[in-house]
Amino acid sequence: xxxxxxxxxxxxxxxxxxxxxxxxxxxxxxxxxxxxxxxxxxxxxxxxxxxxxxxxxxxxxxxxxxxxxxxxxxxxxxxxxxxxxxxxxxxxxxxxxxxxxxxxxxxxxxxxxxxxxxxxxxxxxxxxxxxxxxxxxxxxxxxxxxxxxxxxxxxxxxxxxxxxxxxxxxxxxxxxxxxxxxxxxxxxxxxxxxxxxxxxxxxxxxxxxxxxxxxxx
Length: 217
Ligand SMILES: [Zn+2]
Known about the structure:
Helices cover 65% and strands 9% of the residues. The chain is mostly helical. The strands form three sheets. It has a two-stranded antiparallel sheet. It has a two-stranded antiparallel ribbon with strand order 3-4.
């Protein structure tokens, strides 16, 4: 899942208005941001296997640090705790804990059974929404439109940057999503990992948006 994760981060702004959109997007995407780094370090592995699911050509056969149920609970607690110690904003810490963990729930719904319960575990789970291209698109696009609507309604731009930076990010996410669907599989796993690192770009972009938008009264 891709823009569905961003949808959770955008929607969370209404629940925890004092948390920057940058931190919210960092939480929901935390493990997908760690993932390319772990691939490049050789600690996790992926295989390009066209046809493995109708929606994605990627075989996520080894990613227990970033995507197992147990480590995800750990990342969720650690992220929320660090935030709480820095900001002392309990609602924010709770929302971020849920944000990090929501990634596992959404990936569990979309992935084929390739998500380990824990590192070293032989039990893999996944409901396989990716087996249906229309199903994936309907769920993910509906989540995204709903979240963009909610975020745009509950916040307001303080200046022109607040408008353009926000809608620019949304447009860029939509284009990246379309590109990820229509482009051919990456040439190899290393190129895939370097490509995935570009997802980091959205984080400073979202912090920038947050400084130029305020909650509506
Ligand atoms: Zn993921």
